[in-house]
Design a protein that fits this description.
Elements (H helix, E strand, L loop, with lengths): L31 H8 L2 H13 L2 E2 L9 H14 L2 E6 L2 E6 L1 H7 L3 H15 L4
Antiparallel strand pairs: 1-3, 2-3
Helix pairs in contact: 1-3
């Protein structure tokens, strides 16, 4: 059985009032392997954990010890896999978890991953 690639995200369309929007997969197009891949990277998991704790945040609200281009890559992987939604509010790009979509498709997955990540941080003394 060969893995199937997820369909491309819905193309970006102009937002009401002429603002920018970013492409996001429809709920039905979100695939488990894409979500698991997105959550497997420590930097992306850090972003998801912060969004789960604090709610919607801008990219600059979460400090990652990587270059700006690498940071952009991580957010793109999270968005294109369906884990987060990114919305422009003025000049700021705001990020939020797609918790409802993930829970509908993969019940308990996000909470289980977040709980496991918290336990790992405690076990390793980094909490």
């Amino acid at each position: 059985m060969t893995p199937t690639a997820a369909p491309p995200p819905t193309p970006a369309a102009p937002a009401p009032g002429g603002g920018r929007t970013l492409a996001h997969p429809e709920r039905a197009d979100i695939r488990l392997e894409g979500v698991l891949h997105a959550l497997s990277d420590p930097m992306r998991l850090r972003v998801v954990r912060e969004l789960a704790r604090q709610g919607e945040l801008s990219c600059s609200d979460i400090e990652l010890p990587v270059t700006k281009s690498t940071c952009t890559h991580h957010y793109r992987v999270l968005r294109e896999s369906g884990v987060i939604q990114q919305i422009y509010r003025g000049t700021a790009k705001r990020n939020g978890l797609r918790r409802d979509d993930l829970e509908a498709l993969f019940p308990g997955l996000l909470d289980s991953v977040l709980t496991a990540a918290d336990r790992q941080e405690e076990r390793l003394g980094r909490a």
